[in-house]
Amino acid sequence: MPIISLESAARHVATGNHRIAVVGTSGSGKTTLARHLARRLQVTHVELDALHWDSHWTPSPTPIFRDRTAAALGGAAWTVDGNYGKVRDIIWARADTVIWLDYSLPLILWRLSRRTFWRLITRVELWNGNRERFREQLFSRDSLFVWVLSTYRRMQREYPPLFARPEYAHLKVVHLRSPRSSRRLLVAVARSSQRVAR
């Protein structure tokens, strides 16, 4: 499937009701972009982490996670963020657009560090009573830093072949390589939405 330009993406997203999946390495800003897009387009935002993690950082059983995901994405228009392979078929079959945040590894690690320390200091609640914990994030094999380092290159290899699969030929793919591109997309979507509304 063709990867469309930022300008084409903005025009496409701003016209009509769309179902947009935002993917990318942990810490890339998927949730932030999906939330901002949902706000601008006045559609529902779904965060897969909130559906996947039960209390005490217990992963929901796969059948339940799939049921929750299918129910959350039952509407006519939405944005969703997350990389969970166990529900990808549900999401991508219903989506019409995938936005891939493909930033450099140093930038990802910097953004992840900033986010993690903010969460640790503020003790902000994430999903279902869960909060990030110092030991797990910095001194554990479950650390997101370990996860990013071990999966970053793999994701870069795996996404293009996934986009090329026949069952996903209906998707428009937007490949963003920097936060600046993401900001430009949001600005362009806002402008296109205003023109459409006139």
Quick overview of this protein structure:
The protein is of the alpha/beta class. The chain has one domain (3-193): 3-Layer(aba) Sandwich (Rossmann fold). It has helices spanning 6-14, 30-41, 48-52, 62-72, 88-94, 105-122, 134-138, 144-163, 179-197, and strands spanning 3-4, 19-24, 44-47, 53-54, 58-59, 78-81, 97-101, 172-176.
CATH architecture: 3-Layer(aba) Sandwich
| Global structural class | alpha/beta
Low-confidence stretches: none
Any idea how many domains? Answer: 1
How much helix is in the residues?
40-55%
Q: Outline the biggest β-sheet.
A: 6 strands, parallel
Mean pLDDT: 88
Supply the CATH class.
Alpha Beta
Instruction: Give the amount of beta strand, in percent.
Output: 15-25%
From the N-terminal CA to the C-terminal CA, the straight-line distance is 32 Å
* CATH homologous superfamily label: P-loop containing nucleotide triphosphate hydrolases
Shape: globular
**Radius of gyration, Cα only, in angstroms?**
17 Å
Structure characterization notes:
By secondary structure, the protein is of the alpha/beta class. It has a single domain (3-193), classed as 3-Layer(aba) Sandwich (Rossmann fold), CATH 3.40.50.300. 54% of the residues lie in helices and 15% in strands. It is built from nine helices and eight strands. The protein has helices spanning 6-14, 30-41, 48-52, 62-72, 88-94, 105-122, 134-138, 144-163, 179-197; strands at 3-4, 19-24, 44-47, 53-54, 58-59, 78-81, 97-101, 172-176. A six-stranded parallel sheet has the order 1-8-7-2-6-3, sandwiched between helices. Strands 4-5 form a two-stranded antiparallel ribbon. Strand 4 (53-54) and strand 5 (58-59) form a beta hairpin. Helix 1 (6-14) packs across helix 9, helix 2 runs parallel beside helix 9 (179-197) and helix 6 crosses helix 8 (144-163). The longest helix has 20 residues, at 144-163.
